[in-house]
């Protein structure tokens, strides 16, 4: 089914909205049946009141005239059938970020499917193997198409969801707007060579909102999705101290966030359980401070109504979500690889190989290529031969090394991997993820079972980085 997003907007320096989604039922799923959930999406130009009342409307590109697009909800084990019609004046696709699906449904132009031409329709059809929080977006001209609003949430419900009073979904985005609330032009080489297209207006669910109404004593499940072009969100929940129960759709051992901020690079997701411990008529502020105190701002406030606090009804520690059916990598027998990321401004890269010959950084920049992996730069995005291959069902370890001046959220299509080490130290909880944030001068090891055959993108999800060369292909034979 497709859920309508209901928003109420008010004005503030950063533009937000939140949306409450009704609590999930706990009905069990017959995993032997694959009921089809059929949906139609149309990508087309639209106009929305992004900045809010009293300001000009913003011309966007939208799925079904909405930004974000419709929230798609289905149950684990069901089939999803989505007919996507292209109402744009340029080709497009839809990638189902985080889902382990057949490569022909993955939405990468030329690598997975022919681009959907203007006026044409392509139907995506696949089984939803994993419960969790996912999202969808194009992979053609990604920086502009996603940056103009083409994205939406995909929620795959568990058979036995955690007991909460209600559920919230926050789709976090970041827009670069001018004084007339129009989206600024794309194609900035400074963005591509630096931190990506950072905006000046942060939104939640595509509209302005100062507060999220809550009731004292209630327990809320909050699903968070970062769909921005480049912005990393570092959310501090202050006195609320949420439980983290899932990352990138995959369950983790429930643990308190504590004094740490919740860091979400582009493409990353998190599921939290939050007990609203404030008093009636009080407020709790959520601060985004990822880029330092000088750039920190108030993202939104939880505002408690005047109703009496609900009595305690839940155990303190939430019950862990059941794991998804992911194969566990065999670390001892895994084949090891090393991927070194170089390039960009202030990175020190003098040149790299492209099209069979070494080119200077100036030559590469002239061709719109600014980043390299293991000294190689893709000549044709999406059409390059694999940078590494893996036998089907084999265990793989990839060491990711950042020799650039910027962080990179690295996303592997078609698989989830365990994050096992960071700068030589064991990663806490060693979560399964599909996107990992590689910090400046950082080295991360990830491990996975290459059990999904095909040619899969592995790329930086700062979309200006991906479009200017920070991507490659991993082939599972």
Low-confidence stretches: 1-33
What is the CATH domain class of the largest domain? Mainly Beta
> Any idea how many domains?
3
The 3D shape can be described as globular
Report mean pLDDT, rounded to a whole number: 92
Under the CATH scheme, which architecture of the largest domain would be assigned? Sandwich
User: In CATH terms, what is the fold-level topology of the largest domain?
Assistant: Immunoglobulin-like
DSSP strand (E) fraction? 35-45%
Number of strands: 35
Query: Distance between termini?
Result: 35 Å
Structural class: mainly beta
Roughly how much helix do the residues carry, as a percent range? under 10%
CATH superfamily of the largest domain: Cupredoxins -  blue copper proteins
Let me know the largest β-sheet. 7 strands, mixed
Q: Total helix count?
A: 4
Rg, Å, rounded? 21 Å
């Amino acid at each position: 089914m497709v859920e309508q997003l209901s928003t109420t907007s008010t004005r503030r320096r950063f533009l937000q909205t939140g949306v409450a989604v009704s609590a999930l039922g706990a009905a069990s799923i017959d995993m032997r049946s694959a009921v089809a959930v059929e949906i139609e999406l149309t990508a087309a130009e639209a106009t929305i009141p992004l900045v809010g009342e009293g300001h000009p409307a913003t011309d966007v590109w939208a799925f079904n005239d909405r930004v974000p697009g419709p929230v798609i909800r289905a149950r684990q084990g069901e089939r999803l059938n989505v007919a996507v019609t292209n109402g744009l004046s340029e080709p497009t696709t839809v990638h189902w970020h985080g889902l382990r699906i057949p490569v022909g449904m993955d939405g990468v132009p030329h690598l997975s499917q022919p681009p959907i031409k203007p006026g044409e329709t392509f139907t995506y059809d696949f089984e939803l193997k994993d419960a969790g929080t996912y999202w969808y977006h194009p992979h053609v001209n990604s920086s502009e198409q996603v940056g103009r609003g083409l994205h939406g949430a995909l929620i795959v419900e568990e058979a036995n969801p955690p007991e909460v009073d209600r559920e919230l979904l926050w789709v976090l985005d970041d827009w670069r707007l001018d004084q007339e609330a129009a989206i600024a032009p794309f194609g900035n080489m400074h963005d591509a060579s630096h931190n990506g297209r950072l905006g000046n207006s942060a939104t939640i669910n595509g509209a302005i909102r100062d507060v999220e109404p809550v009731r004292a004593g209630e327990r809320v499940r909050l699903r968070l999705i970062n769909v921005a072009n480049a912005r990393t969100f570092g959310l501090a929940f202050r006195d609320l101290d949420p439980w983290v129960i899932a990352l990138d759709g995959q369950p983790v051992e429930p643990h308190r966030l504590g004094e740490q901020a919740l860091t979400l690079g582009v493409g990353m997701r998190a599921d939290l359980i939050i007990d609203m411990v404030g008093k009636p008529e009080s407020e709790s502020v959520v601060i985004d401070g990822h880029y330092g105190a000088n750039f920190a701002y108030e993202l939104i406030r939880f505002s408690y109504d005047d109703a009496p606090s609900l009595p305690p009804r839940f155990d303190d520690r939430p019950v862990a979500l059941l794991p998804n059916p992911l194969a566990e990598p065999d670390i001892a027998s895994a084949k090891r690889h090393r991927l070194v990321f170089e390039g960009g401004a202030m990175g020190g890269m003098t040149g790299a190989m492209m099209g069979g010959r070494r080119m200077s950084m100036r030559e590469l920049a002239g061709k719109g290529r600014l980043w390299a992996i293991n000294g190689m730069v893709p000549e044709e995005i999406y059409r390059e031969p694999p940078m590494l291959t893996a036998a089907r069902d084999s265990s793989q370890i990839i060491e990711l090394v950042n020799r650039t001046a910027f962080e990179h959220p690295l996303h592997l299509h078609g698989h989830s991997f365990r994050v096992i080490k960071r700068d030589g130290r064991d990663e806490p909880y060693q979560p399964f993820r599909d996107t990992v944030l590689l910090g400046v001068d950082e080295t991360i090891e990830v491990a996975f079972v290459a059990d999904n055959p095909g040619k899969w993108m592995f790329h930086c999800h700062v979309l200006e980085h991906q479009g200017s060369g920070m991507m490659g292909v991993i082939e599972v034979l």
